[in-house]
Each structure stands twice: as C-alpha cells, then as structure tokens.
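Q: Got a minute? One more chain.
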Amino acid sequence: MRYAQGGGLTPREQEKREQLRLEAAERFERGDSTEGIARDLRVTARSVRRWRQAWREAGVDALRSRGPMAVERLSPGQWERLERELRCGPLVHGWDDESQGWTLKRVKLLIGRMFHVGYTVQGVWKLLRRHGWSAQVPVRWAIERDDEEIEVEAGGVAADKITAGDLGAYVCFEDEAGQGLRPPRGHTWAPRGMRPVVRVRGRNRGRVNIAGVLCFRADERSHFFYRLHVWHGRKGERKAFTWQEYRDLIVFTHLQLKAPVVWCWDNLNVHLARQLGDFARENEEWLRVFHLPSYAPDLNPAEGVWSLFKRSLADFAAADLHHLVRVTKRKLKKIQYRPHLIDRCLAATGLTIEPPDNASST
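A: Always. Here it is, folded:
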C-alpha cells in the first residue's frame, strides 16, 4: 500500500502530510499508543490506525508519497486571472438564469474557455480547495442596493463630529421583526431515508410584531429593549406600529439609559413621518436621528438579534397566539440578559464603539 497525493492539498501541504506519516512510523517503532500519536500530531485516531496497518504490511516506505508532488495544470498567473473572473460572478460570463452561484461544472467550462485546458469536475474541486475556496451559502443582498452610497453614509456616521462621543450618548439601532403561528424551519437528525415529520400550526392568522433597539456606549454595558404589537387578524385591526408607539419607544429608551441617544434606523415609511421629525427637532438636546442607507440590513446589529430569535423558534408549535406571545417575551428576555450576545451582533456589522478621546465614536 502506497499513499497517493492529496489532490486538495498544495505541494507544500502534501509534503507536510508525508512528514506526519513518517513521524508516526517512528512512534510505531517505539510502541506508542494510537490515541497518544493522534493527539500529539493533531490528526484523527482513524488516520493513525490506517497508517499503522500500512506500516505493518510494508514498513516505512508504505507511508511515503507515491510519485512526484502534484503539479497544477494552471500557472500561478492563470490562477490569478481565473480568480478575478470568478469574483465577478457567473452573470458576467453568460449564466443569466436565476442561479447566481458558481458550480463545479461552470468553473470547468470557464477554465476551458479562458485557457483551453481540460479539467474534470473532480479536478476543479481539488483546484478550488487547494487555493482556499469552499462551497458556501451566499448572503442575499437586494439588487437595488447601492454599495457606494452605503460606504459613504456608513463613513459619515464615523466621521460626523456631532456623534455619540461628543454628546456622551448611546448609539441606538432600531429595527422591526415579526413572527406568525407558522414557525421557521429547523434541522434535526434522523435515520437516512426516513424524513422526520414536525407538526406545526397550519393556520397562520395572527402575528406578533416586534420593535427592538440595541444600545451601545463605549466602556458601558450594552442594552436591548423591545416592544410588542399583537395582530389577531380581526377585520379593521391595525397590523403594525404607529408613529406614536415609535416615539414612546424612543422616550422609554432615553429614560432607561438616563443619557442622550443617537437613534439609527432604516427608511420605513412610518420612520419618515412628519410627526417624528418634529419630535426629533423639539428634543435636539438629547436626541439625534440618523437614517441608515436603503437595502443595507448588514449595517444594523438588530438583524443579529432577530437571527438569534428566529433560530430559537425553529419548528416551535405554538398552541395559540397568546402562547406565541409568552414564548416571544421569554426568548427576547434571554437575549436582554446576555450583553455579550448583543456585543457580537454589533461586531458582525463591522462597526465599533470607541471612547470619546478617539477620532470617531462609531
């Protein structure tokens, strides 16, 4: 038994892997245990057992690599060109269907078009793995999103002199979410070929709407406040929050924090209500309102809280709307008392809260 080259490894990684096998052979001769070798070499015990069997059958030579180290069919310059084109996306190269992802077959065809080099699908997989690419679930952004505008406006928050640092204020990010009686899908383990069944509410009339705000200030504990609006599905019943409820949430947050607030939220129609604008101007001594750019949920840390909340409700079967309200409050309260989770939601946006002595505060 001889070891072939690992197709998904670079030549340097292949050589390193061979050295691990040879080091394991030396320890086999000393009589070391499989578990000890696996722990010290940071490999699986299964690999060590396989190496030991090969060593017993044919000695140290069985653990050496077979033939020369793998050589790529694409030169370094060709790979750089290919990587640039892959980053442009498949739409640029004529795949204009609904799927905007790269598949191994598409990459294989692109390599043939660009360099007239034939690759198998398995060879493409090895090539991509060798250069640090992997299969991933992409993040979805709206087509209407203007990245240049988002970059300018996000930078404006950091550079603005009238910021939370100058006011000694909290930076507050507000956003809305909702949940009906039909829960989000979750994952579970089951025997292969026997798809599990999770019973949930088929009726979806009624909804719990949530307005939440995350509050941050340098060297202070982060806070999360929320308000609920329950829609029972009755005729003529109001479904969403009114501007008065948003105003009350701002006032409540200010009173709880006992400090000025810089209020950041999106361009929802009710957020742009004239009454809220008048309210902000009347209370400029403790309130600043900033509207985040359109189609940029990744700038709002509240999205992270909603992700935690939705995952906690996966496949949850609510008895009725009142049951859903009780569970919603309990799940949100757990997040309230875990400020480290709130801080991680801010970190995911790439924004930082700095002390007033620094150049910027957010």
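A: Residues 11-30 form the longest helix (20 residues).
Q: Perfect, thanks.
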